[in-house]
Specification:
6-stranded parallel sheet; globular; 8-stranded mixed sheet; alpha/beta; 15 helices
Length: about 425
């Protein structure tokens, strides 16, 4: 029987995946948000992962979008790409995964395959999701239906490393299903696939990808804090060290987004549940989560050094997304900097050309249009995101909107002659 694929969740991961599969298979994209379905049916992808042309082309050759479960009832492969966030206590929140499994379970049929792409700790697919599928469908796992796992490797905003160009890890609940899953992905992933020996191995491989990156960045961030205390330029130190062939060149900065700042908590949660305390990983999380506070404190110190009054000071923050040239604000640590500056009594304006005011929850700051055109005067300017628009900003433009001597805080190392840079 030919594959008819339903992709559950049409965000940064699901939509590009659905588009890639639609080149060879009949695909139905499912999402519970009707507004998202309406936008996609009109050719609009607010994540900017697909262009209007790409969305309309996909619709033209058989791909469809729906919020109606009945429309995916005749599919035989279900790929779940919903987010796996953490709660306020940094514990895994499996609610989206469980809810989506309940939905799939309602339409699951004999011999169907359910593949999960969401990042989880080892065991979630078979120990959490599968029981939900069995309960909702009345079917028996590995007799009546099967499961697979292929962790997402989407890099939001990256137009070079797109879904088909990144090697994909695959796994299945039986050796036979593992091959079916691997062949399915291999048919669209030009970079190739890696078939893991089990679903748990595949789950673990994903969660350590971003844990490793988090730990590496934490080391560089801690070095940056040390060198800043010493009055040494961290960038110069890194450039000097990078002359050795085996030095890993990284830059300090904020760690936000839906992956690096979240995934390690899935692994540490499971480790602690089993009685092991992962001190290195938790320590890295503490360092990276503390960077926003440190940057805000350094901004205040520079303002004081330049005789700026703190209470009521006007501060401009350039960039709100978690990374450059991308409209994704999920878990952006820039908002933590804003919170800190407001706590000091500053009035904060924020500008980001990649998003609109409706895309963010406006609480304690003002979302403004181009500050250069408005020509308001600021006591401090924090360049928080490396958008191409900010890289192109001339120093004179920043001076133009500064109240007196500029206090320019450069987190990304992209402007000339900053007052302080991380």
């Amino acid at each position: 029987m030919p594959h008819k694929i339903a992709v559950i969740g049409l965000g940064y991961v699901g939509l590009p995946l659905a588009h890639a599969f639609s080149e060879k298979y009949e695909v139905v994209g499912f999402d519970i948000a009707q507004w998202r379905i309406d936008e996609l049916n009109s050719g609009v992808d607010r994540t900017l992962e697909l262009s209007e042309t790409q969305v309309k082309e996909a619709l033209g050759h058989g791909m469809s979008f729906t919020a109606n479960l009945d429309d995916i009832a005749d599919c035989n492969v279900y790929i779940v790409t919903v987010p796996t966030p953490i709660d306020s206590s940094n514990r895994p929140d499996l609610t989206p995964l469980i809810k989506s499994s309940e939905s799939v379970g309602k339409v699951l049929k004999k011999d169907d395959i359910v593949i999960y792409e969401s990042t989880v700790y080892p065991g979630v697919t078979e120990e959490v999701c599968v029981p939900v599928l069995e309960k909702m469908s009345g079917l028996k796992f590995n007799d009546d239906f099967f499961a697979g796992y292929s962790p997402e490797r989407i890099n939001p905003g990256d137009k070079e490393h797109t879904v088909t160009k990144i090697l994909k890890v695959t796994a299945g609940s039986t050796p036979e299903i593992a091959k079916v899953v691997d062949d399915l992905y291999k048919s669209i992933i030009t970079a190739g696939t890696h078939l893991a020996s089990s679903i748990k191995v595949a789950e673990a491989s994903k969660v350590i990808e971003n844990t490793q990156r988090d730990v590496n960045i934490a080391l560089i961030n801690e070095l940056a804090l040390i060198f800043d205390t010493m009055g040494i330029d961290t960038t110069e130190v890194i450039n000097a060290a990078a002359t050795k062939w085996n030095f890993i060149k990284l830059a300090p900065g904020l760690v936000g987004g839906h992956c690096i700042g979240v995934d390690p908590y899935y692994l540490t949660h499971k480790a602690q549940e089993l009685g092991y305390k992962p001190n290195l990983i938790l320590g890295a999380r503490q360092i990276n989560n503390g960077m926003s506070k440190y940057i805000a404190e350094r901004t205040i110190k520079e303002m004081i050094a330049h005789d700026k009054k703190i209470k009521g000071a006007n501060v401009l923050v350039l960039g709100l997304t978690f990374k450059e040239d991308c409209p994704d604000t999920r878990n952006s640590k820039v908002f933590d900097i804003i919170d800190e500056m407001v706590d000091y009594g500053c009035a904060v304006d924020a500008y980001d050309p990649w998003i609109e005011e409706k895309d963010v929850d406006q609480k304690n700051y003002a979302f403004i249009s181009d500050p250069i055109k408005e020509n308001k005067k600021y006591d401090a300017i924090i360049v928080a995101v490396g958008h191409k628009e900010f890289k192109a900003l001339e120093h004179s433009k920043l001076e133009q909107v500064s109240a007196g001597e500029p206090v320019l805080i450069d987190i990304k190392g992209i402007i000339d002659n900053p007052t302080w840079r991380l």
